[in-house]
Amino acid sequence: MSWATALWDQLENLDKHTQWGIDFLEKYAKFVKERMEIEQTYVKQLRNLAKKFCSKQSKEDEPKFSCCLSFHAILSELNDYAGHREVIAQELGDKLHGDLMKYSQELKNDRKQYLQDWRKAQQHIEQQLKQMESDKKKFEREWKEAEKLQLRYEKLEIDMNVTKADVEKAKNQLSAQLQVVEENKEEYIIQLQSFNEEQRKYFNVTLVQICQKLQEMDERRSVTLGESYKSLGQLEQRVSPAISKCFQGMVNAGKSVDAKKDSEMVVQLYKSGLETPGDYCFEDFSQVSARTRTSSACTINGPKLDGVLPDRKIILGKARIKLSQWKRQVQ
Amino acid sequence: MSWATALWDQLENLDKHTQWGIDFLEKYAKFVKERMEIEQTYVKQLRNLAKKFCSKQSKEDEPKFSCCLSFHAILSELNDYAGHREVIAQELGDKLHGDLMKYSQELKNDRKQYLQDWRKAQQHIEQQLKQMESDKKKFEREWKEAEKLQLRYEKLEIDMNVTKADVEKAKNQLSAQLQVVEENKEEYIIQLQSFNEEQRKYFNVTLVQICQKLQEMDERRSVTLGESYKSLGQLEQRVSPAISKCFQGMVNAGKSVDAKKDSEMVVQLYKSGLETPGDYCFEDFSQVSARTRTSSACTINGPKLDGVLPDRKIILGKARIKLSQWKRQVQ
């Protein structure tokens, strides 16, 4: 049912309802703004977190273990995730909230205009009604005066004690008054015709147009709200695949950690290349002179013949050091 | 390459590296904790937002327009979204961070134990070496003493001026010293054999075991980090379908807004059921007495015959009121 048909007499309620509609829209806009601010804070905190742990890492100049590289990848994915949520914050702010505030201003202007038009048209028809009723009353007043003159004339006519002149005078007065009545009746009729015409125009044209505009405006407000609600979900859905990629990136970073490779890297970082020391050799001071004394061949077979035996290092064919030497090296 | 083979001489570097490993793990645990705190703040803010706009609505007791119902649905979906992100915060806290801290403590204890074992074994082998070298030096010292006695004896033997008794005495002294040399040599040999055996055990068993444990511990740390990195992404992936449903719910809420239904609801809320007033009737006072005066049939045909015409309301067959009357009703 159209507002023009059903609510032609509900100006005050439509004033109230359309004001509520604007208030509701602005309340929703406020919700969108606060939703955006939450998202902005979230983005800022995520960014700061990624930055904090990223910069700390580079300062320490960590080795390129896969567990470090993957953590860097995690931080990078987190930063990307923050970036996608920032897109959401921006759309909530610029697009949704911005559009709502702009639309709310339009709505206020339109509403003001339509209700003003209604009130103006209403005032005009009321003035017309007043004029018509005033004309009607004047006609009634004059008619009552004519009735009085009629009664007086009828009384004089049957009264045997009055002069003909008095009767004639009363008759003339009545005749003059009936003339006044007829004039006032004509004025009343013209005003009544004019008013009825204006009233028909008011109800059938003016009010119909205003009510239609108010109804269209209010329906457009509902449609706008519906579209904005949809956008709340849709903007999340749009960035959702990109966000999924970030999380998959974190899973991949986890999978890239190679514990065996990392422990091999520790070997490459710290290995001296030295082999573990072999047995210490027996040095038989009792079989050689102090000047030509040499180690024995690392077997303990008691006193040996004097002579230069091959060096233990040469026997083993590799660079070997004694426990006492590597102790000095590492300390 | 195993740490036992390549890093047998890198106790200090492995001490440093495993400490770095624990520090890195704890830094990552700190990252997880801060990530969780960001999520907690986000959840709290989303919850507060939903609550704030929900309670305001019920207070105002808004009519059940579809745009209001859909906004309620949006708030409910937002609250659900916050709930799903709360699950993420809880998993980050209880599972990821909690497990990391527990594991870090185990790691610290194991590391301490392994490095302690290594140092203890190293100290023991050093003591053994010291003992062996002290025995060797004693043998050398005694041998040098024997050499001096040998030279003296040889000098006396070719000196024609010394007595046979002196020569015999020197020979006995040499003989006694050679006995001492032989005893010290035996001690040195025994200590050398023992040391070499201990040293082989140290390098081939003790150090291999400790290095293996350290390597396993360090590899387990990398594996644990990798698993935790994966979880960071996986826990988001697990709630992702539920979160998608929230966003689809918002889209559905937007689609449910029915502008036509809402404007019809305004009609149902405010309609008075009255029809617009018809034309005002001509009241001809001049044709009736003041006591029996009645409206004319709303046509302006000049003076009428006296008589009671059907009421305008009855003619139109509907409840109609005059403009002046509905004006009073609505004000």
Structure characterization notes:
Chains A, B: Residues 1-262 form the F-BAR domain. Chains A, B: Keywords: Coiled coil, Lipid-binding. Chains A, B: This is Formin binding protein 1 like. Chains A, B: Residues 115-198 form a coiled coil. Chains A, B: One of its GO terms (molecular function) is lipid binding. The first copy, chain A, is mainly alpha-helical and 331 residues long. Chain A has 2 domains: 3-148 and 195-265, Substrate Binding Domain Of Dnak, Chain:A, Domain 2 (Up-down Bundle); 272-331, no CATH class. Chain A contains 7 helices and no strands. Chain A has helices at 3-6, 11-60, 66-158, 164-255, 259-270, 312-316, 323-330. The longest helix of chain A is centred in the middle third of the chain and has 93 residues, at 66-158. The first copy, chain A, starts with a helix and ends with a helix. The model of chain A is unreliable at 289-297, 299-321 and 326-331 (pLDDT under 50). At the A-B interface, helix 2, helix 3, helix 4, helix 5 and helix 7 of A face helix 2, helix 3, helix 4, helix 5 and helix 7 of B.
What secondary-structure arrangement, pairings included, does this model have?
The structure is a homodimer.
Chain A: H1 3-6, H2 11-60, H3 66-158, H4 164-255, H5 259-270, H6 312-316, H7 323-330
Helix pairs in contact in A: 2-3, 2-4, 3-4
Any descriptors?
331 residues, Substrate Binding Domain Of Dnak, Chain:A, Domain 2, 7 helices, homodimer, mainly alpha
Which pair of chains has the greatest number of interface residues, and how are they split between the two chains? Answer: A-B, 125 and 126 residues
Structural class of chain A: mainly alpha
Tally of individual helices of chain A: 7
What do we call the CATH topology of the largest domain in chain A?
Answer: Substrate Binding Domain Of Dnak, Chain:A, Domain 2
Count the beta strands of chain A.
0
Oligomer: homodimer
Low-confidence parts of chain A lasting 5 or more residues at pLDDT below 50?
A: 289-297, 299-321, 326-331
Q: What is the CATH architecture descriptor of the largest domain in chain A? A: Up-down Bundle
**Helical content band of chain A:** over 70%
CATH class of the largest domain in chain A: Mainly Alpha
Q: Supply Rg of chain A.
A: 55 Å
- Distance from first to last alpha carbon of chain A: 97 Å
Protein name (chains A, B): Formin binding protein 1 like
Keywords (chains A, B): Coiled coil, Lipid-binding
Organism (chains A, B): Scleropages formosus
Pfam families (chains A, B): FCH (PF00611)
